[in-house]
Specification:
Structural class of chain A: alpha/beta
CATH architecture of the largest domain in chain B: 3-Layer(aba) Sandwich
Strand order of the largest sheet of chain A: 2-1-3-4-6-5-7-8
Strand order of the largest sheet of chain B: 3-2-4-5-7-6-13
Radius of gyration of chain B: 21 Å
Strand content of chain A: 5-15%
Largest interface: A-B, 43 and 42 residues
Chains: A alpha/beta, B alpha/beta, C alpha+beta
CATH architecture of chain A: 3-Layer(aba) Sandwich
Oligomer: heterotrimer
Number of strands of chain A: 8
Strand content of chain B: 15-25%
CATH superfamily of the largest domain in chain B: Thiamin diphosphate (ThDP)-binding fold, Pyr/PP domains
CATH class of chain A: Alpha Beta
Largest sheet of chain A: 8 strands, mixed
CATH superfamily of chain A: Thiamin diphosphate (ThDP)-binding fold, Pyr/PP domains
Radius of gyration of chain A: 18 Å
Largest sheet of chain B: 7 strands, mixed
Helix content of chain A: 25-40%
CATH topology of chain A: Rossmann fold
Structural class of chain B: alpha/beta
Shape of chain A: globular
Number of helices of chain A: 11
CATH topology of the largest domain in chain B: Rossmann fold
CATH class of the largest domain in chain B: Alpha Beta
Shape of chain B: globular
Distance between the termini of chain A: 46 Å
Number of domains of chain A: 1
Chain lengths: ~290, ~400, ~90
């Protein structure tokens, strides 16, 4: 290797893993003076299996739900040691570890005002345990615990509004990003670490295995989520919407038909209409529509 | 310096002297006075520490885990449900070999909810890989925290220490305590110098996935360290005595009138004060009775217990905990200590008392000695109120 | 005695995940490359290397053959070709 990468090759993510891309971009944007606390999940398992580690920065995994609290301890220790000003602290986890089991620890971290960047890698299900439904699984998704059937269209609840929950803590920076827009993600991470206090970035990361698309479709799928308005990209600074990625909205069918997890919905116009409404609401709420 | 103080206050004073860099706790009775005192000490600028008020015990334990992994001395305290809520972090801290020191203000567990003392909480976490050291009085509670840091941070050890002190009885009890002076503390407890830590200057990964090729050795290593630590405790105790003039011998057990005894009670914690008094009363009447106090419950000092009781015909184990559906916790260890050995008590009877704060009185102890007959009993509850068991008390 | 607990990144070699490739591998055509680095940025394995135009390459020891590099290349200068041999060293 010509340089010493902070997230090395040789990890055991599935081919085409969106989370592997995003995780590398995050740590490279944050730089070598970073300590990471990682929740249990795909990323932890594929990046740090003894005796190998992908991490070129100090990295710790404790449990599924406590990376925000572990990071709080790291930050407190760095303040005690007088080193906080020179070292970034990142806590990170998947959507389940963030929005479900780890929400309490995250809320505590945000409320206490720690100088920590929290990254949620959102692949919209418990992919590591075999694609079970999480609080961030989108409406209508077929997962192993929200399968469609005679009595079900799949996951019957919309995504938990995690960015809004983070925002409600009054923290200085909240953003969404996507593995499909790598430079945008890098820019947001750099911006976040330049701001003192708690920061929250939720990154949409396709999972070819769980979402059932070809590995080389990672980018296409990620971009379609943004371009349909289903995964709006925005930044809130000090509670104000400072930036959003504007789009020429594509119909949600284009996104839905790109993945096996929505296949059961394609001949169900009523459900597609509901999902289009979710996208339309996002487009309206964040003023996403690009004026011609 | 000798002071007449509440146990919690005394513990806060020694924690201050041990100078942790990060303290994190979540309030639960009867632990609260300790952390309130520490919060005030930090607020007054008397201790340069980060005091992190968290949203749960799970996070309190996680915060000290993260801070300890960053190479800083840490402290937390909890009790009962709080300890249970910490449970997976408790195992994690030991598995990662982090020298965390915590106080468990021993309290009963729900349901029914009960804030009073017994030892079901810490004993339920006996398999976690933490040292468990039980104080009889507040002088010990103070000294064992200081010893705890020294032990936990010993390079041969690197394991967490839980100092167990009976809730209310000790935490809220007023006693005269000799609180070690700062210069002596500094002499006994060197600055914490971690073996490894999270530091960008020398990055490491911690808390990795260990598959079947690697997992077993991590558990074996803790088991071996625990066994070896039985000896380190004696060593540290000697050094402690040299600096502070208080001799806890091997820090494993205390033998009280056991040498010629034909009946001995085995117990742990503050109840041993009452037992000593009962022993004195019976000795005054010519009865050969004694007490063996377990100080260190994990690692369990089997060899010391064997030596102390091998010639005693009858032993009563008084647990302030119960393993529902099985023999009481300390009783199990006692039976294990003598199984297959040439010598040992003919009778090891097991008694359960003091649950949920039920007073164990002098009379309770005399009753245990009376019930310690040739007929062995197991998990025999003392001080029960039969009238509460007569009929269905739902109304 | 601590057992296997921590890993220094300098001592980690990484698993040779290139052996996972079953069908296709990226072939860098080195014709129209503009050194935009998108292939390097997007690679989930972080196994694309290079700085100059028409000089980027994949470390096949780690490439799992997902094809995202070929997909992102604005000049279509990376072709996914049929796998010949697996897990070769460089």
């Amino acid at each position: 290797m010509e340089n010493s990468p902070l997230f090395k090759s040789g990890h055991t993510a599935c081919a085409g893993c969106g989370q592997a891309i995003a995780a590398r971009l995050v740590v490279e944007a944050a730089g070598a003076n970073t300590i990471i606390a990682n929740n249990t999940g795909c990323l932890e398992v594929f990046s740090a299996k003894y005796p190998e580690t992908a991490w070129g920065v100090p990295w710790i995994h404790s449990l599924f739900e406590n990376s925000a609290a572990v990071a709080s301890g790291i930050e407190a220790a760095l303040i005690y040691l007088g080193k906080k000003d020179t070292i970034n602290v990142i806590a990170q986890g998947g959507d389940g570890g963030t929005a479900d089991i780890g929400l309490q620890a995250l809320s505590g971290m945000l409320e206490r005002g720690h100088d920590i960047l929290y990254i949620c890698f959102d692949n919209e299900a418990y992919e590591n345990t075999g694609i079970q439904r999480s609080g961030l699984t989108p409406y209508g998704t077929n997962t192993t615990t929200s399968p469609p059937g005679k009595q079900s269209i799949g996951n019957f609840r919309p995504k938990k509004p995690m960015p809004e929950i983070a925002l409600a803590h009054g923290i200085p920076y909240v953003a969404t990003a996507s593995a499909g827009f790598p430079q945008d993600l890098t820019r947001k991470v750099k911006k976040a670490i330049s701001i003192k206090g708690p920061k929250y970035i939720q990154v949409h990361v396709p999972c070819p295995l769980g979402w059932r698309h070809e590995t080389n479709q990672m980018l296409t799928v990620a971009k379609l989520a943004v371009e349909t308005g289903l995964y709006p990209l925005f930044e809130y600074e000090n509670g104000v919407l400072a930036n959003r990625k504007q789009i020429v909205p594509k119909p949600v069918q284009e996104y839905l038909k790109s993945q096996g997890r929505f296949k059961h919905l394609l001949d169900n116009p009523e459900e597609i209409k509901k999902i289009q409404e979710i996208a339309d609401n996002n487009i309206k709420k964040y003023n996403l529509k690009l004026e011609a | 310096m000798k002071e007449f103080v509440e146990g919690s206050h005394a513990v806060a004073q020694i924690i201050k002297a041990c100078q942790p860099g990060v303290i994190s706790a979540y309030p639960i009775t009867p632990q609260t006075h300790i952390v309130e005192d520490l919060a005030q000490i930090v607020a007054n600028g008397e201790l340069k520490a980060q005091f992190v008020n968290v949203e749960s015990e799970h996070s309190a334990a996680s915060v000290v885990l993260g801070a300890s992994a960053t190479g800083v001395r840490v402290y937390t305290a909890t009790s009962s449900q709080g300890l249970f809520y910490m449970q997976e972090v408790i195992f994690n801290i030991a598995g990662m070999r982090l020298p965390v020191v915590m106080t468990c203000a021993n309290r009963a567990i729900s349901a029914p909810i009960n804030i009073w003392n017994d030892q079901q909480d810490s004993i339920s976490l006996r398999d976690a890989g933490w040292f468990q050291i039980y104080a009889e009085d507040n002088q010990e509670a103070v000294d064992f925290h200081l010893i705890g840091y020294r032990l936990a941070e010993d390079k041969r050890v690197m394991l967490p220490v839980m100092v167990c002190m009976d809730g209310f009885i000790l935490t809220h009890g007023m006693e005269t305590v000799d609180i070690p002076e700062q210069d002596k503390v500094n002499k006994f407890l060197p600055n914490y110098n971690p073996l490894y830590k999270l530091d960008p200057a020398e990055p490491i990964s911690m808390g990795l996935l260990a598959d079947p090729d690697y997992y077993m050795e991590t558990r074996f290593a803790i088991q071996e360290t625990m066994k070896a630590s039985l000896g380190y405790l004696s060593e540290i105790s000697r050094e402690f005595n040299a600096v502070f003039g208080r001799d806890y011998k091997d820090l494993l057990v205390e033998e009280y009138q056991t040498k010629d005894a034909d009946k001995v009670i085995v117990a742990m914690g503050s109840v041993c004060g009452t037992i000593k008094e009962a022993v004195d009363e019976q000795r005054a009447k010519g009865k050969k009775v004694g007490l063996l106090r377990i100080i260190t419950y994990r690692p369990f000092p089997y060899a010391r217990v064997y030596e102390a009781l091998k010639d005693v015909p009858r032993v009563a184990v008084l647990d302030k905990a119960v393993s529902l559906g099985a023999y009481a916790p300390i009783a199990v260890e006692m039976k294990a200590a003598f199984y297959g050995k040439k010598k040992g008590p003919k009778v090891i009877s097991s008694f359960v008392g003091g649950l949920g704060g039920r007073d164990i009185t002098l009379e309770s102890i005399h009753e245990v000695f009376r019930r310690l007959t040739a007929k062995e009993v197991n998990s025999d509850f003392i001080d029960l109120k039969p009238e509460l068991l007569k009929e269905d008390t739902r109304s | 005695m601590f057992g296997p607990l921590t890993v220094k990144p300098s001592e980690s070699k990484g698993d040779k995940t290139g052996s996972w490739r079953t069908q296709l591998r990226p072939h860098y055509l080195h014709k129209d490359c503009i050194a935009c680095r998108m292939c390097l940025i997007i690679c989930p394995e972080g196994c694309v290397h290079g700085k100059e135009k028409n000089a980027f390459w994949t470390d096949y020891n780690f490439c799992k053959g997902c094809g995202v590099c070929a997909d992102i290349c604005p000049k279509k200068d990376i072709a996914m070709v049929v796998e010949e041999s697996k897990g070769e060293d460089k």
